[in-house]
Design brief:
This protein has 305 residues and is mainly α. 63% of the residues lie in helices and 0% in strands. This is HAT C-terminal dimerisation domain-containing protein.
């Protein structure tokens, strides 16, 4: 079953690749977009981010997914479904006809799109920065498990295709195995998050019983839990935000700064990230930059926001 969905995605991938392979075909595709009134459709910012350079011009063109990027399959299918009429029209060309998508193919892809949408939304939120994310792991795990259970047991309002039901069964088994291996730290983070606390576990049927305690014990525990919250809630749920911060490391180097020490580069990257998040002010950053860089770099750095 899963092989069939993979084959369907590959079929669409081959068609999109063929459309994008020729400048003449791209121009024809743009003409078709205008005929169907699709040239004024807007694309999401996430579609550009996950396109891996697939946006050739400002025109709305089909994009390709990327195996190394989370949710890229979702945005790949989303763009294709949006441009279905234009893709079907250009697929009537003699050299593309064998790759033409059937109506049933599009029906399956539409359900795949709906199925993946919640995963893409949660992934985007959990990879964010500027707010606690580790405490959201348990609630979001449970949300995804609920979706997978509904689809796998045919209780979902609109996703019923046997192929996707089969995929949901496999996904439920895999996600459950990860859930069972979850670190106690994520449970602690959920408990320490003021938005969730113990009420989240109680409301979701967890056994949260415990022994009665001395009435003054909470006074001593407040200091401990506040320190724990500072330590634990500052841990990101994924490495995405850190990777984004350090991916700009190449911008730090220049002809006049090739001899910077690793510690200095790390400090510059961290300062830039903290400044953009509003953790520190520009006036706090400038002395370090002047000491370890030059005035031009300070100006470029300040404008990089």
């Amino acid at each position: 079953m899963l092989e069939i969905i993979s084959g369907l995605l590959q079929k669409l991938r081959d068609l999109v690749t063929s459309i994008r392979a020729s400048p003449q075909r791209i121009n024809k595709f743009k003409t078709i977009l205008k005929i169907y009134g699709l040239n004024n459709e807007e694309y999401d910012e996430e579609e550009i981010v996950f396109a891996e350079g697939s946006i050739i011009t400002n025109d709305l063109l089909p994009i390709l997914d990327c195996k190394t990027r989370w949710s890229s399959a979702f945005y790949f299918v989303k763009r294709a479904v949006k441009l279905r009429r234009a893709i079907d029209e250009i697929a009537k060309d003699a050299d593309l006809r064998r790759k033409e998508m059937e109506n049933e193919d599009w029906d399956i892809l539409s359900e795949v799109l709906e199925f993946l949408e919640e995963f893409a939304t949660i992934t985007k939120y959990i990879e964010g920065s500027g707010y606690p994310t580790l405490s959201l792991v348990v609630p979001m795990y449970n949300r995804l498990l609920t979706i997978l259970e509904d689809v796998s047991q045919c209780r979902h309002r609109s996703i019923h295709h046997p192929l996707i039901v089969s995929a949901a069964v496999a996904g439920l088994e895999k996600l459950s195995s990860y859930y069972d291996k979850a670190s106690p730290i994520v449970m602690a983070a959920t408990f320490l998050d003021p938005r969730l606390k113990m009420e989240y576990f109680v409301d979701n049927g967890w056994d949260c019983g415990g022994e009665s305690r001395d009435a003054f014990q909470p006074l001593d525990e407040n200091l401990i839990t506040s320190r724990m919250a500072e330590e634990i809630l500052s841990i990101p749920a994924t490495s995405a935000s850190s990777e984004r911060a350090f991916s700009v490391g190449k911008d730090v180097f220049g002809i006049a700064r090739m001899s910077l020490k690793p510690e200095t580069v790390e400090a510059l990257v961290c300062l830039r990230s903290w400044y953009k998040l509003g953790i520190i002010a520009e006036i706090d950053v400038q002395p370090f930059l002047y000491e370890n860089g030059d005035e031009k770099f300070v100006e470029e750095y300040s404008e990089s926001d």
